[in-house]
Specification:
This protein is an alpha/beta fold. It is 30% helix and 23% strand. The chain has twelve helices and 22 strands. The strands form five sheets. The chain has a nine-stranded mixed sheet, with helices on both faces. Strands 13-14-22-21-17 form a five-stranded mixed sheet. Helix 1 crosses helix 6. The longest helix is centred in the N-terminal third of the chain and has 24 residues.
Amino acid sequence: IQISKMDQKEIYEKGLIASKKVCEAIDKCPTNYHTVQLSKELLEKKGFTFLNEQEIWPKLVPGGKYYLTRNASAIVGFCLGKKFSVEKGCMKIIGTHCDSPCIKLCPGKESKKNGCILPSVQLYGGGLWQTWLDRDLCLAGRVVYKDEQGNLAAKVFHDKDNPVLKIPNIAIHLMTQKQRQALEINKENHLRPILETDILEYLCEKDCKGKKCTCYCVLSLIGEAAGVDYTKIVDFDVSLADIQKSGLVGRKKEFISAPRLDNQVSCHVCLDSFLDFSDDLEEDKDISIYIAFDYEEVGSNSLQGAKSNFMEDLTKRIVERVATEDHDEHYRAMMRRSFLLSVDVGHIEHTSWHGHSQPGNELLFHKGLCIKKEHHLSSLAIVEDIAFKCNVPIQVLAKQMGDISVGGTVGPHLCANTSIATLDIGVGLMGMHSIRETGSTYDIYLSYLFYKYFLKEFDNKYEDMLN
């Protein structure tokens, strides 16, 4: 697809606006809990009604807008076109994930080394952990505690203005030549952050009555960050987060530099596309779904992950509440008429480390969305046809043969569990799984256009391609 100079300028300018919006959203969302919380607020502002998975759902009506959450870390929004019919309608699904590699506090006892207090941590996903060194880190996550009545309660928090942890690097003078070249990080020994020194035990302003001071233990740290009495804390899921804000970089501000672009850039752009599409359902004949899973970075095998029954449960319940009879038959037929975009980020060919893609199939900045080649020909043809109609360029990524993986995503699990035709697609990044990743402002806007147009354009005219 060739884009004119005039179109290039418009895309560039709108890309800046879209990317600034993504930056603002990412800064509000240091964890998947915050992403779900923000998504919930945006859905409610657009008139979406909450459905509880623990209750019997009402009949779903054409023109209706609904949403639900699972574990407070995964979310679904869906709407029915006003001309929807169960006999001919399909499901147009945009699926993604909202978790990212990170370092988390764990319940293990903090240790003391050289007078410094080191809380216990665990690694979530496969991060470029060396990039977490020398960053100012705050706490964010979800805490479960006993309220004043003794009942269990939960709170999501982000102590964004209070960097309390740091993982210092080692000076180059203290490394051997071999260590300097290898840049090896021992996950157990080298990633323990410093909380404080033991001198604070003597500076405690509380009366600990001769007992060992516990006012500076990890639980008290979490309680202070969350605004909760730490003695009432029952459990927690708390991540370390860099306090540096997201931003646009480059001479023309054509790049986005931010934490958690994998995969929050997909979440925020896809949700924006879905919400804008939902404003006008007058002529729509189908069901449109946005779903963000949790747990993708560690295998998707959880209650709220893509390997669970979440998608199957959701789609079956929707069909049961729109069909008056023959629920199973309507469900099977609708799944085979439906299509799912599995939206996750891809790898831009690096300017310094080359050779990870087949020559001529490299993924480049500002050249549009990335499709991973390992998919059925019909799915690829449908997506390319829709992209052509909305004038969005597509890049097909083919990785170099060998032992290097491009990474997995939610698509294959969902396709296997539901028989829905699926294609993996997304924007490209450099430095994926670094504490700060780099993407293209241009591609972010192009992806918004494509996802919105997919929801508008995909319908039963593609049925023959799916048989």
